[in-house]
Amino acid sequence: MTKRRYNFNPGPAALPLEVLEEAQEQFVDFQETGISLLEMSHRSRTIEDLNQETQQLLLSLLGLPNGYEVLFMGGGASTQFALLPLNFLNTNQTANYVLTGSFSEKAYKEASYVGLTHIAASSKDQQWRSIPELSADQLAPDSAYTHITMNNTIEGSRYNKIPEVGSTPLVADMTSEILSRKLDLERFSMIYAGAQKNLGPAGVTVAIIREDWLEKASKTIPEIMRYETFAKNKSLFNTPPVHAIYMMHLVLKWVVNKGGVEQLEELNRIKSALIYDVIDHSEGFYKGIIEVNNRSHMNITWRMANEGIERQFIEESEANGFEGLAGHRSVGGLRASAYNAVPLEACQALADFMVDFARRNG
Q1: CA–CA separation, 50 vs 253, rounded Å?
Q2: 285-329 pLDDT, tens per residue?
Q3: Which helix (H) or strand (E) holds 244?
Q4: What is the β-pairing status of strands 68-73 and 205-210?
Q5: pLDDT tens figures, 203-245
Q6: Are 341 and 18 in contact (CB under 8 A)?
Q7: Which pLDDT belongs to residue 3?
Q8: What is the Cα Rg of the chain in Å?
Q9: Which residues are CB-neighbours of 76 under 8 A, at least 6 positions away?
């Protein structure tokens, strides 16, 4: 095998090499069944057991007790932007949204097609450089729920503490940081995440909903759009993305072998610090975008003097074995997505490359 590249892609993102190798071994003949998992009926006992084991393993790693439903769905987190209000935004209520970046704004837009919405706080006029303060008195008096995006993939910011919303159900898009740090997830009525950052490959989306809140979900929308449908059928109402769920199962076992979320959180802190330290000590050659106290450990963003030098940085990084360091096309700049599966070695190599590039071009 040729030397693997240092993969900083924002999603689909790096997967653990051990996971890829195990999946490779099982690809043609899954657990000596004589067929590939890709060919296997989702009604088989093998798939039912895999599905159930993966759900329970995820709840255990997240530290959630009984009383939550884990749903495996398609359509990515973007579909959840619409399914959430369809299920929980009644005609006589208002959904609160906190805008902290592009994806939170998209979630708000989808909800506005369904019912009444309220922007409880926003950092858009600061170019998303910070996370705005939020308190219960900023919420609509007839709130259905409050939606936040815990980590902003494009911009590179995150919440350092879960906001206080009183008795209003709190919902979070955790796509780009789930399993990356220890959080009190019992504060949430629902969280959701596309798998392609920290959970596995693209193709499956996880929604975790508190059972008592799930009982309040709409029963008048089409069945395929109801969270209740997926919960009652253990995510097997229709054919699920079986292989993506299997890959998630392998990733979750990898997380356990790494010591769980707490160990990954400490490693992620070290990884991100390597890169942020270069940015902060470059005497302005690299310019951090996000206010220091809101910086993400998953998506590290920075700018340089002009687009020309940024293009040169990207070209040279690619020639030196790095992948995915260009910023999102909507904002430009540079971005290193150091998700759980990105090894410490890759972050050290990037930090060294950045120091050398600044020395040669500063």
Answers
A1: 12
A2: 999 999 999 999 999 999 999 999 999 999 999 999 999 999 999
A3: helix 242-257
A4: antiparallel
A5: 999 999 999 999 999 999 999 999 999 999 999 999 999 999 9
A6: no
A7: 87
A8: 21
A9: 194, 202, 205
Tokens read off for 258:
């790494």
Show Cβ contacts of residue 253 under 8 Å, excluding neighbours closer than 6 positions.
57
Q: What is the C-alpha to C-alpha distance for residues 324 and 336, in angstroms, rounded to an integer?
A: 7
Length of the chain, in residues: 362
Rounded CA separation 101/263 (Å) = 28
- Strands, sheet with 94-99, edge to edge from the N-terminal-most edge strand: 68-73, 205-210, 190-194, 170-173, 143-149, 94-99, 116-122
- In this prediction the pTM is 0.97
CA distances from 105 to 98, 147, 148, 212, 224 (A): 8, 11, 10, 28, 25
The structure tokens listed for 43 are 């009604």
Residues ≥6 apart with Cβ < 8 Å to 87: 217, 218, 221, 225, 226, 227
Cα-Cα-Cα-Cα dihedral of 150, 153, 154, 157, to 10°? 50
Whole-angstrom CA distances from 216 to 72, 74, 108, 223 are 20, 22, 21, 15
- Write the single-letter amino acid at 291: E
* 143 phi/psi in degrees, rounded to 5: -70, 135
pLDDT for res 1 = 56
